[in-house]
DNA sequence: AGGCAGGTGGCCA
DNA sequence: TGGCCACCTGCC
């Protein structure tokens, strides 16, 4: 800290001073499309694309008390942060992006050699990643996701942060913690256009408020035990529990089945008429220990080409 | 203009 | 268990 840093010249008004771009120490070399799919393909709801006055694209996102910008520059990933948050973000960003995970080996272990459709999806989004998001925020985001499309989920969460989140840097507000949400009324949540999800969020906030440490403990449990506990929460069913464990808990064996995956697997694997629970079982059996990674590739492919 | 959207919970046989 | 249906809201 302390050391003065040059700031980006493209700083718009009312926004914090951002540090100079720094090279991310990571082997990851995503294409524009893969970066977009990773940050804004339904895993996370707090990233948005923006452009500098020079017309260069970058992504800006937030998680807990961190905010960062990412850009692809000459094929390499670079990052920037609000000046006051630089050191915190430097420490947290590799965890968030899964820098220390061996994605090559995980992808290699998927059954693409015997599964032509999976192979196509892998080729279409090479080196797609799963984010490692904060557990509690992932839970919040996916409770909000019920029968909503990504842009609308993003908008709900942006409203929530703007109205009920604390400021982490000038002009940037984080999402409220679950402890803070316990003090936000269901009506206030409805005012953030949560709709019927307001009851789920308020109910989960109340549940967690009565059980200090419950969520942190859940995050440490093995997949099956953690899932059983998540299912106790109002507004959390099979699909959302699996999303929380996959995108917020790095439990790669979890295989969320939503309407897209249901349709995609029915079509590509001849599972017509199968119910979500059966498709989930098929997914774990067919794709193996990193079934959730396969799911993300299939989901990306389906959104693009389906 | 009415239906639908990355679900869940509750009620019915 | 298995199959409905209500639940909010905004967008095509």
In short:
With 306 residues, this protein is α+β, with helices and mostly antiparallel strands. It has helices at residues 32-40, 86-97, 103-108, 116-124, 135-143, 150-164, 178-181, 186-191, 197-209, 214-220, 223-230, 238-247, 259-269, 276-287, 291-305; strands at residues 22-23, 47-51, 57-63, 66-73, 76-80, 167-169, 172-173.
What labels describe this entry?
single chain, 306 residues, alpha+beta, 5-stranded antiparallel beta sheet, 48% helix, DNA-binding
What's the arrangement of secondary structure elements?
Layout: E1 22-23, H1 32-40, E2 47-51, E3 57-63, E4 66-73, E5 76-80, H2 86-97, H3 103-108, H4 116-124, H5 135-143, H6 150-164, E6 167-169, E7 172-173, H7 178-181, H8 186-191, H9 197-209, H10 214-220, H11 223-230, H12 238-247, H13 259-269, H14 276-287, H15 291-305
Antiparallel strand pairs: 1-5, 2-3, 3-4, 4-5, 6-7
This protein binds a DNA duplex (13 and 12 nucleotides) through residues 42, 142-143, 145-153, 155, 190, 193-200, 234-240, 243, 256-261, 275, 299, 303.
């Amino acid at each position: 800290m302390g050391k003065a840093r040059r700031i980006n010249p493209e700083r718009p008004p009312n926004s914090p001073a951002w540090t100079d771009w720094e090279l991310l120490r990571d082997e990851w070399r995503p294409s524009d499309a893969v970066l977009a799919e990773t940050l804004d393909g339904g895993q996370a709801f707090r990233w948005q694309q923006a452009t500098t006055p020079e017309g260069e694209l970058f992504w800006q996102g937030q998680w807990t008390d961190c905010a960062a910008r990412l850009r692809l520059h000459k094929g390499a990933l670079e990052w920037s942060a609000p000046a006051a948050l630089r050191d915190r973000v430097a420490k947290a960003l590799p965890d968030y992006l899964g820098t220390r995970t061996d994605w090559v080996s995980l992808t290699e272990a998927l059954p693409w050699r015997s599964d032509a459709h999976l192979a196509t999806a892998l080729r279409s989004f090479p080196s797609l990643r799963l984010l490692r998001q904060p557990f509690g925020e992932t839970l919040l985001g996916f409770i909000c996701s019920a029968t909503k499309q990504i842009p609308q989920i993003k908008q709900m969460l942006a409203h929530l942060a703007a109205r009920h989140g604390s400021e982490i840097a000038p002009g940037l507000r984080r999402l409220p913690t679950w402890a803070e949400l316990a003090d936000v009324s269901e009506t206030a949540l409805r005012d953030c256009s949560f709709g019927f999800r307001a009851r789920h969020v308020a109910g989960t906030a109340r549940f967690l408020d009565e059980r200090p440490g419950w969520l942190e403990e859940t995050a440490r449990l093995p997949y099956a035990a953690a899932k059983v506990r998540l299912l106790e929460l109002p507004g959390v069913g099979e699909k959302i529990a699996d999303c929380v464990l996959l995108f917020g808990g790095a439990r790669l064996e979890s295989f969320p089945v939503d309407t897209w995956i249901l349709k995609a697997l029915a079509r590509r694997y001849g599972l017509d008429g199968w119910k979500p629970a059966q498709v989930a079982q098929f997914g774990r059996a067919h794709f193996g220990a990193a079934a959730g990674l396969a799911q993300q590739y299939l989901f990306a492919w389906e959104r693009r080409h389906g």
